[in-house]
Amino acid sequence: LCNLSVLTSNLLPDVLDQRHASVILRAIKDLVVELEEFGIHLGLSNADIQEIKVNAPYEIRTRRKDIIIAWLETGTATRSALISALEDVERFDIATKVKGLPTVRL
Questions:
Q1: C-beta of residue 51 within 8 angstroms of C-beta of residue 67
Q2: Which of 22, 57, 89, 104 is deepest in the core (most CB within 10 A)?
């Protein structure tokens, strides 16, 4: 049973929701400078991103989490949109890591 949870802890299917937040956050942990632009490419409004920034002006990890949660709450979050947004901000290293995550249980 323990081994199964290890195998599924990096699971990232095609359609995403809040259950996938921790997998996404682990994958994008190195996204800092590009974070606001990344949020725009995910489809969040500039107003939403600015509100997140105001609520956590010095906490990049909190802003990263809030952007991902806001995106997942839209109901339109997909694996391909995540990869595209990473590529749009030229973080091909992180996009490659996300592409390597399994989509289904092994």
A1: no
A2: 89
Domain ranges (residues) in the chain = 13-99
What Å distances lie between residue 63 and 1, 5, 38, 48, CA to CA?
34, 28, 12, 11
* Residue given tokens 């990263």 in the structure block: 64
Residue 42 contacts by C-beta under 8 Å, 6 or more apart in sequence? 67, 71, 77, 81, 82, 85
What integer pLDDT is reported at residue 3 of this predicted model? 40
At 15 the three-state DSSP class reads: strand
Q: pLDDT tens digits for 55-96?
A: 999 999 999 999 999 999 999 999 999 999 999 999 999 999
